[in-house]
Amino acid sequence: MSPAATMTMDTAERAILDVADALFYERGIAGVAMSEIRDASGVSLRRLYALYPSKRELVAAWLDDRHRRWMLWFTTAIDRHSAAGVNALLAPFDALGEWAASPGYRGCAFLNSLAETAEIDDTHKAIIADHKRSLIDHLTLLVARDLPESAAWLPAALGVLIDGAIIQSTVFETDEPIRAARRAASRLLECTS
Amino acid sequence: MSPAATMTMDTAERAILDVADALFYERGIAGVAMSEIRDASGVSLRRLYALYPSKRELVAAWLDDRHRRWMLWFTTAIDRHSAAGVNALLAPFDALGEWAASPGYRGCAFLNSLAETAEIDDTHKAIIADHKRSLIDHLTLLVARDLPESAAWLPAALGVLIDGAIIQSTVFETDEPIRAARRAASRLLECTS
DNA sequence: GTAGAGTGAGAACCATAGTTCTCACTCGGG
DNA sequence: CCCGAGTGAGAACTATGGTTCTCACTCTAC
Q: For residue B90, what is the DSSP state?
């Protein structure tokens, strides 16, 4: 979940997206003014608006960027835990546990953004749904590889457990829901195999 | 989930809370101006501010009111499905299915509000956490009654499945996640008993 | 050297919305 | 009838923040 460099992106764009990520995640979209993005990134409002013609488009670019970075972090964390001997279908919950324990954790940026912008912007909604679909797609891959005989609904169920765990860990500010979800997933795997 | 009358509440308060519920749920807290609450409820700004000294306090009163109404609806729906022969621990998912299919469904008002107001208002955060805790408490009761020998983590796991199902049904705008959660819950119950 | 394009700093513009205030009206009690 | 408390309608005040504009500066091309 750390800033990533992309070949085809100049330093101003990179600075803007990094700052947007930090601020939007911490305080929500409506809680961050464009002038704060300017102050924190050092990119003038003029250039900012030249790159992103409106705040909505900046938000869309941020969500897109965060989607890529988050998925990379998530899949990497799963692989790392798998390599350490954890069942690959339980590793996602260990990854969530790490995340929830990290400083500044405020839950899923995509779910948070949905509540803020749902009425206004269909583009944002689409990006958010795509993100969650990607997550489930990845789970589907893992299931197909490690537990090919399991029920067809297993990836969807794991996805529900993951999002439920993220949400509740945010509401309750504890990782207990993540551990409960992990136990439930573990039981599901036993009963399915 | 329909407006409810309370003995100790005059008509103005009731009108305000009903209107607040409709508007805040549909468009989010930030998306509704106090003047719209006035227009839709017919209560002047003066009386509105006499009853609730600030928007934040109105929001708190709304969350509180909605909590009571939602829990009543939820427990009633569970009882209804149970009476119709559904396992009481699966009935919550049938209730969610009904809810998600109802017109104007926009997910959980409490989870939506959390993203909007988390930074600002600890009172709101506390109400939201209490609401979710109430939900899990009710699940705990149901489990204690119907499956007393089950694992201690079962109510928490059901709670995670429920919130995950609500969130994903909102993101994807389909009841598929609710059905997936129900299947997972069903499997958990089998394996635990 | 000079014109012109691009840029930064920040003021300006404008819309929105939370909150308060003004003023006229009503209505019950003396 | 008259007073004062309460109220509605809505203007007014104020702050915020998205977006645009001004002006001075720089740097390149000729």
A: T
What are the chain B neighbours of A27 within 8 Å (beta carbons)?
Answer: 119
- Asked if residue A72 is part of any domain, the answer here is yes
Does B46 map to a domain? no
Interface-testing mutation among A154, A160, A179, A186, with chain B (most B C-beta atoms within 10 A)? A160
Query: Rounded to the nearest 10 degrees, how much is the dihedral formed by the CA atoms of B44, B49, B52, B54?
Result: 130
**Is residue A159 a contact partner of residue B176, using CB atoms and an 8 Å limit?**
no
For residue B94, being part of any structural domain is answered with: yes
Tally of domains within chain A: 1
Confidence band (pLDDT; 50, 70, 90) for B37? very high
Q: In chain B, which residues from 43 to 72 place their CB closer than 7 Å to nucleic acid strand C? A: 45-46, 49, 53-56
Task: Quote the tokens at residue A23.
Answer: 């601020």
- The answer to whether position B73 is within a domain reads yes
Are the beta carbons of B156 and A177 separated by less than 8 Å? Answer: yes
Indicate which CATH number applies to the domain containing B92. Answer: 1.10.357.10
Q: What's the pLDDT tens digit per position in B99-149?
A: 999 999 999 999 999 988 756 689 999 999 999 999 999 999 999 999 999
Contact partners, residue B46, CB within 8 Å, separation at least 6: none
CATH number at residue A128: 1.10.357
Is A106 near chain B, with CB under 8 Å?
A: yes
Q: What angle do helix axes A91-101 and A154-172 make, rounded to 10 degrees?
A: 20
Domain that holds residue A154: 56-192
B16–chain A Cβ distance below 8 A for any pair: no
Chain B contacts in chain A segment 133-162 (CB below 8 A): 133, 151, 153, 156-157, 159-162
pLDDT tens column, A65-99: 999 999 999 999 999 999 999 999 999 999 999 99
Instruction: Kindly state whether B118 is in contact with chain A, defined as any CB-CB distance less than 8 angstroms.
Output: yes
